[in-house]
């Protein structure tokens, strides 16, 4: 059972992580209102991947912990779970809120030039995406190297 859960855990991590790390790449090339609208629409479609992957990730991770109860006494495991919740708050709550705000700003824009209000909102989203990516990176390090 442990091997199957580990397989699901790794597969779900890849699914969730690719979408989380791909978001900044999609939006970094945006230069016009049309491109920004397309990028936000693409992000909206890709948002299902971290939701499915993240749900399976936490369930399989906790399942692994229940099969190997000593994991709940391992600091790397507890910190990984805490980081997951930071990532979850950013990806499931904060970023979608910013995306909705950005879309409203773009719909009010005439022409193809990106408004300053959009750029400010996008900078906040990019900052949050950076934090989420850093948390993902630290989680991977913790799970692979188990430093403490």
Q: Which residues sit in consecutive blocks of at least 5 with pLDDT less than 50?
A: none
- State the domain count: 1
Q: Could you give the distance between the termini?
A: 26 Å
What is the percentage of strand-forming residues? under 5%
Mean pLDDT: 93
Name the assembly state. Answer: single chain
Q: Compute the gyration radius: what is it?
A: 18 Å
The major pleated sheet works out as: none
Structural class: mainly alpha
Walk me through this protein's architecture.
With 148 residues, this protein is mostly helical. The protein has one domain. It is built from 5 helices and no strands. It is elongated.
Short description:
With 148 residues, this protein is mostly helical. Helix content is 84%, strand content 0%. It has one domain (2-145).
Task: Detail the topology: elements first, then pairings.
Elements lengths: L1 H27 L4 H14 L1 H20 L7 H33 L8 H30 L3
Helix pairs in contact: 1-2, 1-3, 1-5, 2-4, 3-4, 4-5
């Amino acid at each position: 059972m442990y091997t199957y859960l580990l397989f699901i855990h790794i597969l779900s991590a890849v699914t969730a992580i690719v979408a989380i790390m791909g978001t900044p790449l999609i939006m970094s090339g945006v230069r016009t209102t049309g491109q920004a609208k397309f990028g936000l629409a693409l992000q909206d479609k890709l948002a299902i991947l971290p939701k499915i992957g993240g749900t399976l990730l936490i369930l399989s991770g906790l399942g692994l912990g229940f099969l190997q109860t000593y994991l709940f006494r391992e600091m790397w495991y507890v910190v990984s779970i805490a980081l997951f919740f930071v990532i979850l708050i950013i990806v499931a709550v904060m970023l979608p809120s910013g995306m909705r705000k950005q879309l409203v700003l773009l719909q009010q824009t005439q022409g193809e030039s990106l408004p300053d209000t959009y750029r400010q909102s996008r900078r906040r989203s990019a900052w949050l995406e950076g934090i989420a990516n850093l948390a993902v990176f630290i989680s991977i390090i913790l799970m692979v190297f188990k430093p403490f």
